[in-house]
Write a structure and sequence with these properties.
Layout lengths: L2 H16 L10 E6 L6 E5 L2 E7 L1 E6 L2 E6 L2 E5 L3 E9 L6 E7 L2 H11 L18 E5 L2 H12 L7 H17 L4 H8 L4 H14 L7 H8 L3 H12 L3 H19 L4 H7 L5 H12 L3 H17 L5
Antiparallel strand pairs: 1-8, 2-7, 3-6, 3-8, 4-5, 4-7, 6-9
Helix pairs in contact: 1-3, 2-4, 2-5, 3-4, 6-7, 7-8, 9-10, 10-11
Keywords: DNA-binding, Transcription, Transcription regulation
InterPro entries: Homeodomain-like_sf, HTH_AraC, HTH_AraC-typ_CS, Tscrpt_reg_HTH_AraC_N
Protein name: AraC family transcriptional regulator
Length: about 300
């Protein structure tokens, strides 16, 4: 049996034992155990590493579909509105995964300390605009570091000292790995990804306002044509499509968490027409706003009435 197979087996065991238990995980660590396929769920994903130990998942960004399964990892490099669902999961073989929040400051520090070694795989790839989501097979070194991070859940006294070191190692494995060209740009303040990220954050913070591509391009230090091209390369959407997705996801949250009616929520997120809001909401989520929020509330009631197995 290969060393990587042993590490993957241990990762499955650790995730299965700890997923869902209360308590803080070290270093922004996230664990997931799911026992059945799930419906597509829309969310805004922040810069994250996700490693799959068992099962499979699908993430959709615009018109791009990313399937990833056991022994693979996915990186989200900038805040993006994505739709994800578990495609392989059962009670006998649940989906098991772990993730880590990616920190630009850690990546920047590693680039400074690593010098030329941090760019060893950059030859011939530096000119390409990085994508917002990438998938690769997990290397033995990255897998080993993830296993050691999750092991700290069994050794909470060690976590304050060891977790920051292992977190830096995981970031280093990504920086120098197959998707290093994308990961490195997360930590570079003047990278194309950082410039697009600045525009992305502005749209998210001002999603109810009208936007002008020329203004966003100026904010990013690019011509309008270059900005449009790089924005689409990273997000798989135009700026207007991105804003629309953010508006609709924010509307869904407002409908679920407040008592505002559908028309008021539509106006609150930037729509001038209630009918246009309902039409575009249905196109994204499959049902009109009122039906969707009623279904989500029923699901929440069922979950809250279900006793915890822990």
């Amino acid at each position: 049996m290969l060393e990587s197979d042993v590490s993957l087996d241990e990762l499955r065991s650790l995730i299965g034992r700890h997923a869902g238990r209360p308590g803080l995980a070290p270093g922004g660590l996230l664990l997931s155990a799911v026992e059945k396929p799930t419906p597509p769920t829309a969310t805004v994903a922040e810069p994250t590493l996700a490693v799959v130990a068992q099962g499979a998942k699908r993430l959709t960004l615009g018109d791009r579909i990313h399937d990833y399964g056991a022994g693979q990892y996915l990186v989200v490099s900038v805040g993006l509105p994505v739709t994800g669902h578990h495609t392989q999961a059962s009670r006998e073989r649940p989906f098991l995964g772990c993730g880590l929040t990616l920190r630009p400051a850690v990546i920047a520090s590693l680039l400074l300390e690593g010098g030329p070694a941090a760019y060893a795989r950059a030859v011939g790839r530096g000119a390409a605009t990085p994508r917002g989501v990438v998938v690769s097979d997990v290397s033995a070194d990255l897998l080993d570091a993830m296993v050691r991070m999750v092991r700290l859940l069994d050794r909470p006294a060690d976590a304050p000292v060891l977790a920051p070191m292992i977190e830096r190692e995981i970031h280093w494995r990504l920086v120098t790995g197959e998707q290093g060209a994308t990961v490195r740009q997360i930590g570079l303040a003047d990278s194309r990804l950082s410039h697009i990220g600045r525009a992305v954050r502005w749209i998210r913070d001002h999603h109810a306002e009208a936007i002008r591509v020329d203004d966003l391009a100026g904010m990013s230090g690019m011509s309008a044509s270059a900005f449009h091209r790089h924005f689409r390369a990273v997000t798989a959407m135009t700026p207007i499509q991105y804003q629309k997705r953010i508006r609709l996801q924010e509307a869904r949250l407002l409908l679920l968490s407040t008592s505002q009616d559908v028309a008021d929520v539509g106006f609150a997120v930037g729509y001038d027409s209630a009918s246009q809001f309902s039409r575009e909401y249905r196109r994204l989520f499959g049902v009109p706003p009122g039906q969707d929020v009623a279904r989500l509330r029923r699901q929440a009631e069922v979950l809250s009435a279900t006793p915890s197995p822990l």
